Amino acid sequence: MSHEAAPLPDANLPPFDGGRLLMLGAAIAGAAGLLLTLLGGFFNARAALLAYLVAFVFWLGLAIGAASLVMANYAAGAHWNVTVRRLGEHVAAIVPIFVLLFLPLFLGARYIWFWVAPQEPISKETLELLAHKRIYLNMTSFIWRAVAYFAIWIGIAWRLRAVSLQQDESGDPALTISARRLSAPGLVLFILSFTFASFDWLMSLQPTWYSTIFGLYVYAGSFVASLALVCLVVTGLRSSEEPWGKLISVDHQHNLGKLLLAFTAFWAYMAFSQYMLIWAGNLPEEVQWIVTRSRGAWRPVGQLILFGQFVVPFFLLLSRDLKRSPPALAAVAVWILFIHYVDVYWIVMPAASFDRLGLHWTHLTAFVGVGGVSVAASLFLLRGTRPIPVRDPFLSDSLRYVQP
Amino acid sequence: MRRFVLGEFSEPAACVEAARKLHAEGVPGLDAYSPYPMHGIDEALELPRSRVPLIALTGGVLGASGGYAMQWWMNSVNYSINVGNRPPHGFWTNIPITFESGVLISVLSIFFSSIFYFFKLPRTYHPVFESEKFRTASLDKFWLSAETEDQDQVSSLEARFRSAGALRVHTVVEQV
Amino acid sequence: MAENAAIYALRGTALIEGQQDDGTLNKTLLDFIWQRARPGWLFLLAIGLALTGLLFAAITVTLAIGIGMWGNNIPVAWAFGIINFVWWIGIGHAGTLISAILLLFQQKWRTSINRFAEAMTLFAVLQAALFPVLHTGRPWFAIYWLFPYPSTLKIWPQFKSPLMWDVFAVSTYFITSLLFWYLGLLPDLAALRDSSSSRRSRIVYGIFALGWRGSARHWHHYKIAYLLLAGLATPLVLSVHTIVSWDFALSIVPGWHTTIFPPYFVAGAVFSGFAMVLTLIIPARRFMHFKHVVTLRHLDSMAKVMLCTGLIVAYGYIMEHFAAWYSGNVYEQHVFFFTRPRGPMAWAYYLQMFCNVLVPQVFWLRWARRNIAVLWIGSVLVNVGMWFERFNIIVTSLHQDFIPSNWAMYYPTWVDLSLLAGTIGFFGTLFLLFLKFVPAIALSEIKELRHEMAEGALDYQPTEMEGAKP
Questions:
Q1: Domain spans, chain A
Q2: CB–CB of A273 and C259 under 8 A?
Q3: Which chains share 3+ C-beta pairs under 8 angstroms with A?
Q4: Which domains are present in chain B?
Q5: pLDDT at C466 exceeding the cut of 50
Q6: Low-confidence residues of chain B: pLDDT under 70
Q7: Which residue of B has its CA nearest to A276?
């Protein structure tokens, strides 16, 4: 442990104004992507909407995961994370745009979710089952639940950001207390609401299927991806000329890398628990999900996820040197983000296309569209603020933090 | 007949500083003793990187592959049993024991390599225990020792220990 | 002043109270070992030994007559034996969580309670391991039923069964916990050897200390070995209760076969384990004078972990009930909406929900986390609730299975109850002996912590701040 206090950042350091080009570029690419996806929707509504759902869940999950990271650190009373916290707050703060982005899913629901308007010739048993689930799986309650989810996410994510920014001005430690008070119940609400959101939007793609761990599985994947995103931003900031980036030390990066390692294993734990139990139980109503996903064209995708989201990053991240090297950690982070996209794809697409991968050009446009808008919104919010909470009572602890 | 010159310190920082100084002067067989690990002593004595992680990794890999091979051979080669028509070689159901055996062998190799090889324990006798004063080394004091075969060097070593700040210096002789 | 109060609240109180140095810590923490056994300790030990006697009597009956002496019979083929097994092994999990996971998370407050909790782990796993061995009915054959031993039958254990995974998981867990505990104990055994005043205790502790002399060359490897063991123990402890949950979830019994079981069992294990640590440490810190190292802040942190894991357990309950309805499966619905809440054992269901879901909610309040009486009663209730959770999972799922003509009630016999009471007594006996002969607080780590605090590397509260306490 080093005992000398690191110098506090200069409070007069000008607010962050970098990333202008990236913001504009992302906004333009996002708008273009969304427009092209819309265009694709006129030709093939189902394909475009499914592609859009994959992109929507991927990017929204990053925001939810980042908010959870911020809250988990508050709730645990962590000090080390202060220098990287604001980045997480600004990934989380983009949730409101997803209210708008949700509209296409709402309008095109009958193309995506089979239960909205079951038309094809289906068996009597399935019809009875859907009738049983009608209280939950109907458009009215679907919308109201979505409203509740967004209210929770936006309310908490914006409150966290507001409290933190307010502290930059006043330096009042009581604000940290109120953020902590918000965070513990906030996490409870986030996990519950995201679980049911994953039931509504993903699990109900195959409405006869169910798995009680599914919410945690999707949550764990999103959390790992958001950690990877924070790692990517941190390594980028540290390598740039940005003066704020110099305040984030290699030890902070190292700790994020460790968390990435731990939660990669956590994701694998959830995935294995779900897959193995269903495989071993072999009950028709459950096993349908993994049967589609482990046959034909989907089999190599599943194997890619097994190796790509667990085996490879886990063993790479065991290395201390890798976690401390910005380019190496950034490369792993990019890989994890990519493979998380594949994972969401693997959750969504087989429900619609049993035998083929269902690749469609709108997957690219939807990804760029939702992603571009998200990145632009996040940078828009970040510009003009300080990327490090300069008057947080634990900033000096955080700056002094070293790996044991 | 090995002789150990012992010096006592009351603060870890002073002990580490003295160790750094004496090590730089090239004092032979230098070692430090403390009730808990002292920060910076590894650098002061320039100890090489520990090989415990390597042993742990080797044990883990051997244990895990051995565990998997055991299940594969016993349940699908040597005496194949059909259970609920699952494949005799069930990859997914082999994972738990593979993991457990990896951990088990890794833990055993860490523990026993540390005790028997790295610590060279258990031992019934060590010359430093000749000194009754040295009992504080596990309680609240910090000690340095230098080792020599040569009786003539003892007084010069004792002087060096004193000049490095040792509060109490004395020498013990190995009883063979 | 208000700002000071806020910072004070954020920083929390000191982890070690009062003006301490290595000498006073040695004296206060080893005092209980060097002083004569107190009447209270002897009285508790007598109760523990009496119950241990009962345990051995019940074991003798079980082995001599057979497990027909237990209350379980088809359809309730698993009952007290497995309930107690899961309950005890779950209690054990807190020890590893405190000693390994909190170490990796650099939670300094673990230092005061890790030795205590690790000992609890060892003794709890020991009790747990008794039950499956007895449940085999003829434990002297268990060697080739459970371990891959090349017997003349030429048949090997069936590795697709989670019961086999249990054998590997529990034995690995016990060995790892024991070695981890002993490695941590080594410097303290040396401290006992070196602070002993009688020749006899010097020799005895000297033997167990293996000649440890605190050499820097040893500490160098020791630190890494300890950290690696912690790193391995962390996934291990998660795997153990995960595998225990698979004992149930791999079957297709309604109420057992559900994918949320692994995380929910692990959380439940930590939940009950922390409850047990609190149940034991609250009296221990008082009677053994550990209040300066096991402070209200420690109790507060443990209560928070209990709340957090209790919430995960509640999440598991919500998912189970939701999926039972959502699945449309009549058997699932029968278990979750009829057998458990409205069946003949409904009282156990409501007791479980009260103890595991409602009681921990009180720990949202700082007041409750720092009120010794509330904390202790809450922790006992959680222990009770977690026992009944396993009772409900196991017995209620089985006693009304797929065909109503199979249904039957379950009643435990005196042997079942004696085994439960007996293991509690045996556990207590081992724990009392541990408290008397081994430092219950990791002395060397506490001294290191005090040193770090004094160096200002940690959030140490200067004494004048005590006056500013709101």
A1: 20-400
A2: yes
A3: B, C
A4: 3-49+127-173 (3.30.70), 52-118 (no CATH)
A5: no
A6: none
A7: B92
